[in-house]
Amino acid sequence: MTLLRPEPAEVQHPEVRNATAPVFSVPAGDGEDRTTVFERAIGGLKWVIVPVGLVLTWHLAVETGAVPSTLVANPVDSVVRLFELTADGTIAEHVLASLRRILLGFTLGSIVGIVIGAIIGTSRAGARVLEPTALTLIPVPAVAWIPLLVVLFGIGEMSKVVLVSIGSATTLILATAAGVRGASRDLVEVANLYEKSRFTLFRTVLLPSAVPGIIASARVAMALSWTLLVAAEVIASANGLGWFIWDSRNFARPASMIAGMMVIGALGKLTDTALARLGAHLTRWNRSYGS
Description:
The protein is flat and about 70 Å long. It has eleven helices and no strands. The chain has helices at residues 14-17, 30-63, 75-87, 90-122, 124-137, 146-153, 157-181, 185-193, 198-235, 241-250, 254-282.
């Protein structure tokens, strides 16, 4: 009787023998370096396609008369005016006033929204007490609070800070509650098995699971905060970027008006980038597709 013996390694099937071999290899060299540089250059151009297209459309609309130049300045005049306002310190005064209001209001509103959302998400009793009221107030547009806030606090700083806080808080309440409720039940059961306290459970399991949703909603809240701040400064203020834009419009200074809008756009991008990087740092443990 003939015994079956395994084939020696050197005569194994080619597919088995080459299972660990790379599928393909690209020789390194100058050609590869040139291709990488070219691909990076093309990738960099993708970032400017839309902005350049918008600026060109804007310039053509003003120069051809499709948009009256007395109401909207062209890009060149707007940039020149922005440099002039920066050089004489005019824009810095309004930037500081607006940044102070939005950072204070956003911080206070975020704290309130996260705390209330955490209570709703972790406590059934808290949810019964707070959630119906929150769900009633959240649909009310934050802009609708401006007349009431002006009556209560006047046209000073408090009314604007409170308005931004309301917008931030109402945006974050439901996101925090949903994030906490969406925590893994398996992780919660493991924490209970080890008899962890409610605070430890919240700090190590529930809150980390809610952080991605909180950061995403915080970025939305920040964008909303700029909208609310400009609206409040237009209605009741004597300084700030919103007031500066509206004042420029009233006195037919289109270049100054557009310059103020540019500054708000730049500040909005900076604040959003800061929140995005904070979120990336806080969720560095999360190996998701997006990360």
